[in-house]
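Below: protein 1.
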Amino acid sequence: MTSLPGGSDTSASTAEPRPLVCARCGTRSEGPQPTWTCSVENGTRHYFCDTCARENLRAIEGRLDSAWW
């Protein structure tokens, strides 16, 4: 089993997944969002919606923390 960066290998298979919330604009996901961007900053996961990820693509690719955008 593989885990995402910043996560743990333990999981509760009976727990319902929490909706994702964009760390930049606060948009909530309506379900699984495979196109959202996940960034690990200082050991914490931050999720960004499609719109915020597209608007800040250069900063994301340059590995700048979201505080810089």
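Below: protein 2.
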Amino acid sequence: MDSKAAPISISQVRQDVASIFLAKVFNWMAVGLGITGLVAYATAATGLAVTISRSPLFIVLAIGTIGLVFFLSARINKIQAGTASALFVGYAVLNGLFFSTLFLRYTGSSIAGTFLITAGMFGAMAVYGLVTKRDLSGWGSFLFMGLIGIIIAMVVNIFLQSPAVYWVTSMIGVLIFTGLTAYDVQKIKRMGEEGIMSQGQEAIVKGSIMGALALYLDFINLFLMLLRFFGGSRN
């Protein structure tokens, strides 16, 4: 019997390292989603969601969550890994408080059902981003322009109140965030392959936080778009 071990290729090592980094990213994403879900449910169950929806706190939370995303993105290279982790957890908590108001508009069963649909679609596109040999980097600018377009359309529709615009932006939003899921997963995989795991614990933690934030946003926004189609109204 040949006792020599089969040589390990450089590409295999890179894939293994990328898998470790991806696991860290998905673990952080799962933590974020879990915190948001628990906070949202607890806030709705205690009746605090009603207070939030009827007070300036709703606007404060909306601005706070957006502000934290921009702050993390802009300052990630200048803050400590522990600070980045705490800000990510804080962001998940704020989102939980903000999204607790969804329980006032939609039934709990339709929210749960939509979450499962979102998880299935997200999972399928994440797998595609991992296994495809196609370079998805060209999707980035196209998806970003589409995202800006639907944001503008949604803001304009606040004043127009057009059902047609509402449903079109919802459908396009689903397509954009499913595409972003595959794009971001492939991008994160490449970060792992290109050596982030050799840059020290600080870089690993901060890189995994930013990767988790991107996927968290893809999941949450896909969920919100799908909820427009599958959410059962309480009214």
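The chain has a mean pLDDT of 90.
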